[in-house]
Amino acid sequence: MVFPKRLTHWYLQNKRDLPWRKVHEPYQIWLSEIMLQQTRIEQGLPYYKKFIEAYPTVFHLAKAPQDEVLKLWQGLGYYSRARNLHETAKHVAFDLNGKFPDNYKGLLKLKGVGDYTASAIASICYGEPVAVVDGNVYRVLSRIFEIDTPINNTAGIKEFKILAQELLDEKDPATFNQAIMEFGALHCKPQNPKCDSCPFNDMCLALKNDRVKELPVKLKKSKVKKRFFNYLVFDLKDESTILEQRKGKGIWNGLYQFPLVETESLSDEEELKSQDKFTDLIGGDEFSIELYNQKPVVHKLSHQHLYTRFWIVNTTEVKKPKIALQEVIDYPVPVLIENFLNEYLPDAYK
User: Is 69 among the domain residues?
Assistant: First the structure.
């Protein structure tokens, strides 16, 4: 078949020199694939290097405290990936004697591992002929074969998986899978694809019919929800503060934050002081509160936008356990709070 031959030829001439491509060990491949979910390689590569240095084997990662893992992950986003990564490392290290499952079906049983990651590990590490399908693959296939089926519904996911499997070079699935992902990332890009020099420009139906910009098709997401966050940054006279760990299934589970008061809209000082969360923290009548940023910081997540303001609270007595203010930087926090701390405690980040 002409498709895999052209694709492999392009890949061997254009592939990037990436550290996980120099090994075929499942630990390194698994780590890189989890990190690169919804993350560009340019952003994920420094994190991969930090993790490999800190945790050279799955046993090192398994034995690390979760807070340490989350701190090292800080800034990469989608923190459920880091929690699942840690849980899977413990399972592989302690229950499977450090050995990852050696086939697609077994890999699928690992926490945080879906079809794409299982296919990648199985094909790259074990030569199993299973096709990967990620955002890059959707884009390449939808354009070359002019497929209108939405990529984010059940029918589309099934259709593209079948097509990718039909095209797969079963004799060398590792190279094919890496090639098609690399081609989507470097050549058949979302914006400004290199159609003039494309090895498939004689067979790309989207190019022929002037539909490159229209594909792939994606169903519209639900309406983005607005949320209003007010962080209470206690800056006490003994240079201490209050930090809380987020619990539950919401965003940033397991990360730390200043006490949070969520309101229905942007709040003023009087409204904030009337909230139960505020009064539950203040230990006496003497305190002052000052808004740090008049204009809210808008932090955009996939289905919600957080309008965030930080309030500096000075008082002599609080009702919650305290930590030294300078120690805050040692805790894993959302990037939203990290950015604030870079401004508020610049000396601590030197």
Answer: yes
